[in-house]
Amino acid sequence: MGELTSLPRLLDRNATRFASRPAYREKELGIWQSWTWAETAEEVEALALGLLGIGVEAGDHVAIVGRNRPHFYWSMVAAQCVGAVPVPVYQDSVAEEIAYVLEHCGARLAIVEDQEQVDKIIEIKDRLPALTDIIYVDPRGLRKYDHTRMTSFAKVQADGRAADKARRSALAGRRDVAGYDDTCVMLYTSGTTGRPKGVVLSNRNIIETSKASAAFDKLTEDESILAYLPMAWVGDFIFSVGQAYWCGFCTNCPESTTTMYENLHEIGPTYFFAPPRYFEERITILSIRMEDAGALKRRMYQRFMKLAARVGPKVLDGETVNLWDRVKYAVGNVLVYRPVRNRAGMSNVRVAYTAGEAIGPEIFEFWRSLGINLKQLYGQTEAAVFITQQPDNEVRADTVGVPSPGVELRIAETGEVFYRSPGVFVEYYKNAESTADTKDADGWVATGDAGFIEDGTGHLRIIDRAKDVGKLDSGALFAPKYVENKLKFFPNILEAVVHGADRAFCTAFINIDLTAVGNWAERNNIAYGSYQELAGHPQVLAAIQDHVEEVNRSLATDDMLSGCQIHRFLVLHKELDADDGELTRTRKVRRKIIGEKFHDLVTALYDGSERVSTETEVTYEDGRKGSIKATLEIRDAKVMPVEAKALEAAE
Fold first, then answer.
1. Half-sphere exposure of residue 360, counting CA atoms within 13 Å on the CB side?
2. What CATH number does the domain located at 7-200 have?
3. What does the alpha-carbon distance between residue 139 and residue 565 come to, in Å, rounded to a whole number?
4. Averaged pLDDT, 462-474
5. How far apart are CA 145 and CA 150, in angstroms?
6. Measured by CB atoms within 10 angstroms of the end CB, which terminus of the chain is less buried, N or C?
7. Between 3.30.70.2740, 3.40.50.2300, 3.10.450.330, 3.30.300.30, what CATH number should domain 470-650 receive?
8. What is the mean pLDDT of the chain?
9. Which one has a higher pLDDT value, 466 or 420?
10. pLDDT at position 370, please?
């Protein structure tokens, strides 16, 4: 077995130590399939032998494109077994985005899910001279394709199982030479400011980070997770591969992206991760259901949720709560909190994390008040995820915790956060200049985020992206993400983009949540034919204005950000979309692109216009381009008087 210096070696250990325990589950055709660790080791070996059979060499890059399935997790480890480098790619990427990644890394092989992904690869094949083979998992629709350099996953494994002693010996040789500092995986950044960069992470990066973070939260082989986040995202890799292999716990794959909530409810994971958007969406769904509930049920829910907001986090953290409140909270747990946790699929959750971007304080406290141990972590692809984590009983909405085990932090004079850890990436692939700009000779990495470390607690507080934090004309601090998260707490608001750097005041673009607002329209017998029509409805605009002004009231009491109140806003005529380049594949806002693309709307927000006509290019699901025209109403929001304490701080 040797030292645990690679994922294949961890797999060998798990196949012995946890042989009969489940390693993977997948729901297919309505039935949960299961593979033990011993069976997983056999599946990976068969695939690795098959990869040798088609000529995959050490150092080759293997692209993996598909939804979360055991086959693709096996593919990543099988690639490592033969000395190749797995490169997961976002499955919803358009052909052009896939072309960039595969061309940049020089992919020799692509392992894909189905006909849709095969078609994307064929479309861009002329740009990929290094790509010689495609392996597909789902054969439906591919019978009449040219199979000269295209093979089914099952056939490759069958060939591997029939391999002779010479090939098996060659595999053992490649697997045994993998070192701790050899490449484990290459993951591409989300590309918020430009082209994605290939982040090279070593076995040391992944295993040391997994070991330390698992110890931090006392993770064991008894954990169970649902793998539903994009496999190309570092968060999924560290949770579903790194920690899963280190601890030996089970990774569960949903039947499809559309059944994720149902499958989450069925699995009831003990360890759960979701970006803030997930928790926002669940609140939206819950709010819609409560609007449709009877009057008695609504009153009961509202009453017990007020109690939960007041005492729930204290109960969760073991703080002192008077007996009467504990009794009422116990009753609320039976009538409200437990059913809500159950509907959210979090009945069994022992540890839950959120990260990726800042979560609104109200959203964070809502879930903790229900008794869910939701915590924040701060991380990056370049850190193999973990930079800071929140210890149990030290969980707050306004910090991202203390340094993870083995991590050092420092704050530059500019306020930018730097870190150093065993998880620090090796390099940006084929980009020595960016590597040097991000990581210095001593291993310190610039995060690009502005923040500070609290005296006394040692907790890190992130203000915003360093490049986004600025000043208004008045000199007041401008931190758009903080304001945007407050806006997104309201179920009616899906996305928000706040403007104001170097300007006299703040303004905002807002996307309505079509599910929540559409449900409201149906209940009120308001007919609409499209997102655009509903977004421009006078009653919808009035409701959004109420939300904006409520946020302004909250900001007026904030010591640092009282100047960020929103003076004017408009509701966009289209949803911000990754296919249109406005969001990354992890749904982060691309501010620069949005500012350039909607320059006419930004201008109108600041020149006093009451209405603005615009035309915007959009991308349809089949890749075709089109445009939509709209005339948008611009509304003034009431700005609240700044409270004395906040005014003194601003001065």
1. 24
2. 3.40.50.12780
3. 55
4. 81
5. 9
6. C
7. 3.30.300.30
8. 92
9. 420
10. 94
